[in-house]
Amino acid sequence: MKTLFDKTKLKNFEFKNRFIRSATHEGFAEKDGSMTDALINMYEGVAKGSISTIITGFAFVMPGEPSSPGMLGAYDDRFIEGFKKLTDTVHKYNANIILQVAEGGTQAKFNVKKRTIYGPSAVEHKYINITPIEMTQNDIKKHVNAFGDAALRAKKGGFDGVQIHGAHGYLLSQFLTPYYNRRNDKYADSIENRARIIFEVYENMREKVGDDYPIFIKINCSDFMGDEGLTPKESRFVCKKLDEMGIDLIEISGNVGFNTTQPEIIQTNINTDKSKQCYFSEYARIIAEEVGAPVAVVGGNRNLKLMSEILNNSNIEYFSLCRSVLCEADLINKWQENPEYEPKCLSCNKCWSLKGNVCIFNRK
């Protein structure tokens, strides 16, 4: 019988348990994306809490302001020194740390009138009302190279791996979404074409970091937009193709960026109603049956017994946590001491702020 506290191995590092701190907006970096003591201290607290692996909030791969303020930059070699300070700190606690890399597209709410915003097509965002500049194929090539260069900087900076952010309505996710991708070239129409930019990003990264360096991806199981969005079948296709290409771990999430008809994920009674927990696990279970790469699932993972049941009745290997760890950085320690412990986080989303992502319980 597998347990949530099993040690497992993946390439050049070991998971000391099956818990991953999933990426989230932090908002503590400098305006240009430089590292800060506040960000290092925040991650040090998470590492102390015995979580196996931390995935950072996204680092933007192109110069210019990110889609959210206070996010790390990965577009220049000058950031490597700051990366080393962060990774050295986290590694003191026998934890792994993965750099998530992304570009925002129209999933942006920050200085939108003062910067160039690219997208797969010049289609206004349904809810944020931003119309991007349609990327040329040369623009796509520049972005693909930028993702690869960012991955190499992550490696030089001591990160244990890199994660492609292909979910939540950010730029790569928008290429997968028919509503936002209305191009008339090799990056449009079929899911194989819409996912082409992600496949190219992976290939560029792999060429630059080598075969032994872990590359993860975060991807929506569905956009929950009907025919206008990425469907579960199409998501499975992308995951299987990436698996064939050599992706090291697939983290399954769902569209949390478009205010769609997705399953309700902001529940104030999520801790007491187990039916509202692990809400992407059924989608992840199907994907995990179809790929050889390990699969992690994020979304409402709050109960040890429920996660253990999923672990032992599916091929899902890892469980990602986000808001609950923002609330209690030492949550894994608490679960080790008391498997019946119920997290304090209520998924109220009041942690999220452009001024810095801090649980409302922890604000001073």
Account of the protein in words:
There is one protein chain. The protein is an alpha/beta fold. The chain has helices at 37-48, 80-91, 137-156, 171-176, 191-194, 196-209, 232-245, 281-290, 304-312, 323-327, 331-337; strands spanning 8-10, 13-15, 19-21, 53-55, 59-60, 96-102, 118-119, 133-134, 161-166, 215-220, 249-253, 295-298, 316-321. The protein has one domain (8-362): TIM Barrel, CATH 3.20.20.70. The model is unreliable at 264-268 (pLDDT under 50). The protein contains eleven helices and 13 strands.
Give a short summary of the structure.
By secondary structure, the chain is an alpha/beta fold.
Tell me the name of the CATH homologous superfamily: Aldolase class I
Class derived from helix and strand content: alpha/beta
Distance between the termini: 43 Å
CATH class: Alpha Beta
Number of helices: 11
How many strands in all? Answer: 13
What do the pLDDT scores average to? Answer: 91
